[in-house]
Design the sequence.
């Protein structure tokens, strides 16, 4: 990413160019897309003095700063005017919605000409809020609408009948019948699916969510592996296990990194728990199974796991086997 030269920017805070991907004017936060495709979060305090709000598709400049929650855009200023020609506004809205099909683009241009650029942009912002809140289903409830579909539905529901016919004209298809037949109207063209979220899109999305993060009350994890070395202390045993994939099969649509980075887990096991598994692990074919609570350890760069339950694979299999019948117990006579 190449910084944009600017006379009023100090050398330590170069200005960068970007495009507003979305912005919530109520909470005064949003996301800017850089020219290289990466994104950066705009917090409520990120707008420059005199910049009241942002609109989707606007070109902006900003400086990059960071706090405990990560990098963010500051001193964000608009370099173009959203109240430009309707065709320009329509192109910006289409880009924000991920719409590329010619019929959808024509429909967006009709919307901007009919209700005006400001109302059209406000509807885009509302569609984004609906999407963040869980989206909108199609009438039969079979699937979620795309972001463009939410936008079109909001506009359609609010237009008076005379304007609705202008913005959403019925498409009539004439078929050559064997006998005279009335023309039938085609079903409205559904908006194309937006591009799926990638792993590189996650930083801005997570930064936005962390502004209003929920609170976890219980966290548990299971680690399965075989330690190479252990450190036995008077009251506990400490060992480390590294994980670098592969990831299991994930549900469709969930983004994942191309390469799984190595994560080191430092496992703390109580004295009595370790005594139960230490002998079993002498068998090189056995593996350790630990259930516990994970905690990030920034000082060591590991994830600490405090074991609450410890066993091994072979011990588990042995517990599932039925116990042999005592030879001294007489069998019941056959009936």
Sequence:
């Amino acid at each position: 990413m190449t910084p944009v030269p600017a006379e009023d920017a100090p050398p330590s805070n170069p200005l960068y160019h970007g495009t507003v991907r979305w912005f919530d004017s109520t909470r005064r936060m949003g996301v800017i897309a850089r020219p290289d495709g990466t994104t950066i979060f705009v917090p409520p305090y990120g707008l420059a003095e005199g910049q009241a709000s942002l609109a989707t598709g606007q070109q902006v400049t900003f400086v990059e700063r960071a706090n405990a929650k990560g990098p963010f855009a500051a001193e964000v200023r608009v370099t173009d005017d959203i109240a430009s020609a309707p065709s320009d506004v329509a192109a910006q809205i289409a880009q924000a919605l991920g719409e590329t099909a010619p019929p959808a683009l024509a429909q967006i241009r009709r919307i901007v000409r009919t209700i005006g650029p400001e109302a059209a942009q406000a509807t885009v912002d509302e569609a984004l809020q609906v999407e963040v809140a869980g989206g909108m289903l199609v009438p039969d409830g079979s699937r979620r609408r795309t972001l463009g579909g939410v936008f079109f539905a909001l506009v359609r529901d609010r237009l008076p009948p005379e304007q609705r016919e202008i913005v959403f004209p019925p498409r009539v298809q004439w078929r050559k019948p064997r006998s005279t037949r009335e023309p039938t109207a085609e079903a409205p063209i559904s908006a194309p699916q937006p591009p799926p979220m990638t792993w590189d899109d996650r930083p801005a999305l997570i930064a936005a969510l962390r502004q209003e993060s929920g609170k976890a009350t219980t966290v548990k994890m299971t680690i399965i592996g075989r330690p190479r070395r252990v450190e036995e202390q008077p009251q506990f045993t400490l060992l480390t296990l590294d994980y670098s994939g592969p990831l299991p099969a994930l549900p469709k649509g969930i983004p994942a990194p191309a390469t799984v980075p190595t994560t080191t887990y430092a496992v703390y096991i109580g004295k009595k728990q370790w005594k139960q598994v230490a002998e079993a692990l002498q068998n090189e074919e056995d593996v350790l199974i630990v259930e516990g609570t994970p905690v990030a350890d920034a000082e060591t760069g590991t994830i600490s796991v405090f074991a609450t339950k410890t066993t091994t694979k072979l011990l588990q299999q042995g517990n599932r086997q039925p116990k042999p019948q005592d030879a001294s117990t007489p069998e019941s006579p056959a009936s």
Q: What stands out?
A: Helices lie at 86-97, 102-115, 117-132, 147-158, 161-167, 202-210, 271-278, 313-320. Confidence is low (pLDDT under 50) at residues 4-11. Residues 179 and 242 are 74 Å apart (CA to CA). The domain at 221-248+260-320 is CATH 2.40.50.140 (OB fold (Dihydrolipoamide Acetyltransferase, E2P)).
